[in-house]
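Long-time lurker. I teach an intro course on protein structure, and each term I like to show students one example going from raw sequence to a predicted 3D structure in token notation. This year I'd like something fresh instead of my usual example. Would anyone be willing to generate the tokens for the chain below so I can use it in lecture? Attribution to the forum is fine with me.
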Amino acid sequence: MNLLFRRKNEPSRRQFLVKTGCSAMGITSVVNTLAHLKLMQGALNAQSSGGGYKALVCVFLNGGNDSNNMLMPFTGTARTDYEAGRGVLTIPTANANAALNALQINATNVAESDPLGGYLGTFGVHPKFNHVKTMFDTGELAFVSNVGTLTQPGVTRANYSTASKPPQLFSHSDQQVQWQSSIPDKPFTSGWGGRIADLLDPIHNPSTGNASMSVSISGVNSFQVSPTGVVAPYVMTSSGVVSFGGYGTNYASAVNNPSLLFQAANYKTGEQGRRLQAFENILQMTHASLIENAYNGVVMNARVTEGMVGTALQTTAGSTAGTSTLDTVFNDAFVGSGFNANNDFTNQMKLVARLIAGRSSLANTRQIFFVQQGGFDTHTTQIPAGSNTGGHTGLMNNLNCTLKGFRDALTSMGVFDNVVTFTASDFTRTFTANKGDSSAGSDHAWGGHAIVMGGAVKGQRVYGKFPVLKLGAATNSIDSTGASGRWIPSSSVDQYASVLAKWLGVGDAQLANIFPNLSRFNSPYSTAANLDFLDFNV
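-- Reply from a regular --
Happy to contribute to a lecture. Here you go:
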């Protein structure tokens, strides 16, 4: 019996969708039920699985990335406002120490991202973004400016106190959930990554023996929460699969070959082997209780997926335990950076690259990955003097090198065109510094900039509308309240995310079910929005 396939009495995805769709009518509002049925119908009516492999990689910059110093004006009136407002957090352009200077990039669409017309000159990026600059200038990467959580368009400084806006602005936990759900005006029920997976999984990953379409390398998150439970994310750590305890590393004390599952001859004859065999025999049983069956199914799926993931990782396993054939690619990206490539975030991205390399073992043609880089809550010492590894400087250094390593790994496999990597964060940080000395940092704000990278990205461009960097009640200011530079987003999470969803395969007719607030905003592809950052033919 091949236990990678569905057991006889388990429902198919089609049956599960129908059952959960019907049960939803008894527990949700009419509006939510109708949206759910539309999602279900889209999956059931699919006639084709589509062609080729595609993956989205969400890089969440946890803590609130100060993107004011990730992408900045290099020349023009905007540069004057930047230097006037940033104070001790200013990234220079002409310091005697060239290593401290912003790196100028050659954006080809400055006029389209200019909020006023003639306000912007040229753009620059963080001094540690040398690889990002190269990828931008060669058309492999782009920026999306001033994107954030919104419930409605039209928020201004003048109407800020009365306008509809997301609750609990500037709160880490609330804004993280709202970014990852894209529905800030409703209680959290699911993430937009989870909704995409629910729709596309039965279309593009129809095999009953495939691994989960959603894989997190950074624990449980809101982004991948499924509204139906059909696609439960498989959660890993940067060290790899999380195995059941008590059987040795990778089950070495219990089985002869960890890649073989549920084979009687594969269990070792010792106590640990017999115990694992007994446990896995229980997993294969059918129970009278639906709750027991459901619980059993979760554990069974975790064990099966673990085996598949382990097989996928063998594709790039190194000759020495704990190494991989992609180590050199990532290590090379860190040469000269002063930063150690063996860190948690880089290892997360390396693991994603390894899973993509072994994708045939996972039996999916669509995947959504979630990784996380922490440490962005930089209230103090944001720019530590003389350090390449501390503060926001170190975070940008690590992000720069890791994206380069990931890009090179995908290119070596020939799948750079098949993967879009994008960043998100709680919010950006205040434009003004919270102190006037070297211990200064910045505080919680609102709209910020994001990165998109991949062969499908229409690179060398800055998308959206760049904020007018004027504080308080100054003319044309979009400082939401006070005078610390909390920019009102010009693009919503819905607009940004819908472009990514469409590239992955969500049809135009289904986008409103994934992003119920999307129709409130300008089309991402309109001149006003300037968010046409992906080539859907790639």
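Some talking points for your students: Residues 92 and 101 are 5 Å apart (CA to CA). The first helix runs from residue 13 to 24.
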